[in-house]
Amino acid sequence: DIQMTQSPSSLSASVGDRVTITCQASQDISNFLNWYQQKPGKAPKLLIYDASNLETGVPSRFSGSGSGTDFTFTISSLQPEDAATYYCQQYDKLPTWTFGQGTKVEVK
Amino acid sequence: EVSLVESGGGLVQPGGSLRLSCSASGFTFSNYWMHWVRQAPGKGLVWVSRINSDGSTTSYADSVKGRFTISRDNTKNTVHLQMNSLRAEDTAVYYCGRGGYWIDDWGQGTLVTVSS
C-alpha cells in the first residue's frame, strides 16, 4: 500500500505569512495527488487536483506543485479564514485511495 | 446546486448492522462515481468505498472489505453503504462524496457510533 506522509502535523503562522505543507508518497504516484481543506465540524473541500490544478472558485493564494513522490501545498498569504486542517490524497494505486494524516494550520 | 445528504447514522452495538444512505440532487447522478469516506473522532480522513456510475464496479478499503457493501439506485439518486459486523473502530462520521479521482462535492456527514 502507498503511504502518504504529511509534514508538519501542525503549524502556527501569522496573517500574510507564506505557508508550505509537504506530502511525501512512499512510491512514485506521478501527479495523482489532490489537496483538501477541512474546517472544524465541516466536510472537506477540494482545493487542488492533479497536484497543481486549482479547483474552480478556490482563491489563487492556494497552490500545489510536485510530482513523483514529493509534493508541496502553499498558501502564499495566509488569511484568518484559512485556519483549517489540510489533507493530501493520492489516487495512483487504484482502486484504493490514501489520505495523508493532515496538517492543522493555526492563524495567530 | 449540488446537494448530498447522508442519513442512517446512529448508535449500534458491536456486531450489529447499519445502512447509510446518501441522497443526491443538483446534478446527473448516474454520470458520477460515488464514494464513502469516514473520519473517527479527532482523527483524519479515511477512504472507505467507491462505486462506479452504473454500479457495476465497487472497491473497498481493506479494513471494511467483507463487512461493508456499497450500492446505488440511479432511479432514486441514492447511494447506500450497508455496514455489517460493526466494530468499535468503525465509529466515525461517514461522508458521501461525488467524484472520480477526487471528491469535488461532499455531504455533511452522518455519525455512526458503535458501542455497547
Please, could you describe this protein's structure?
The complex is a heterodimer of chains A (about 110) and B (about 120). In chain A, a hairpin with a 7-residue loop joins strand 9 and strand 10. Chain A is mostly beta strands and about 110 residues long. The mean pLDDT of chain A is about 95. Helices cover about 0% and strands about 50% of the residues of chain A. In chain A, strands 2, 4, 5, 6, 9, 10 and 11 form a seven-stranded mixed beta sheet that branches. In chain A, strands 1-3-8-7 form a four-stranded antiparallel beta sheet, with no helix packed on it. Chain B is mostly beta strands. Chain B is about 0% helix and about 50% strand. Chain B contains no helices and eleven strands. In chain B, the strands form two sheets. In chain B, strands 2, 4, 5, 6, 9, 10 and 11 form a seven-stranded mixed beta sheet that branches. In chain B, strand 4 and strand 5 form a beta hairpin. The radius of gyration of chain B is 13 Å and the shape is globular. The mean pLDDT of chain B is about 95. Classes of the chains: A mainly beta (about 110), B mainly beta (about 120). Chains A and B meet through strand 4, strand 5, strand 9 and strand 10 of A and strand 5 of B.
